[in-house]
Amino acid sequence: MRFGGNKLLAELDGRPLLQHMLDLAASLPVAPVVAVLGRNAGELRAACRWGDELIVVNPRPDAGLSSSVRLGLAELEHTRADRALMLLGDQPWLRVAQVEPLLAAATDSPLVVPRYQGTRGAPVLLTRAAWPLAAQLHGDQGFSQLFATHPELVTYVDVPGTNPDVDSPADLSRGAG
Q1: In what helix (H) or strand (E) does residue 56 lie, and over which residues does it extend?
Q2: Which of 28, 57, 105, 110 sits most deeply, having the most CB atoms within 10 A of its CB?
Q3: pTM here?
Q4: How far apart are the first and last CA of the chain?
């Protein structure tokens, strides 16, 4: 069973799911932070504590994850950012210790992807060189499209633990696994 509407507003430990990711982003050495919101942008703005994040509203979230990726990268085009860490709003159990290896990876690869116990996952780190490729994404498949068509551009980094996402209300009670 899928979650249904307003998933990012669902509470975990007294905070909306999105707040968990905003707090994580604020604790990382990344700037600027771009938050791409969907139809419930007004409710999310009211429910979360915001800092210096750049907020972009996706007018067509039904076009899939790729539409949000494109909007976020378009916003970063106007900054000095040379890489983008694509955090997903429904992964509240992600920790700094899991993201730091991606940020520290000394690689010339345009795409840096975590592996949790041998399985690739999120978040994905893209250098600016990969942004035009990400602009070609479509639908809700995310970056797996690029991993399949451009495996030579990917560096995998093994990270500790797991990183489950929240797809259903039951996932909130199941926890990080």
Answers
A1: strand 54-57
A2: 110
A3: 0.91
A4: 18
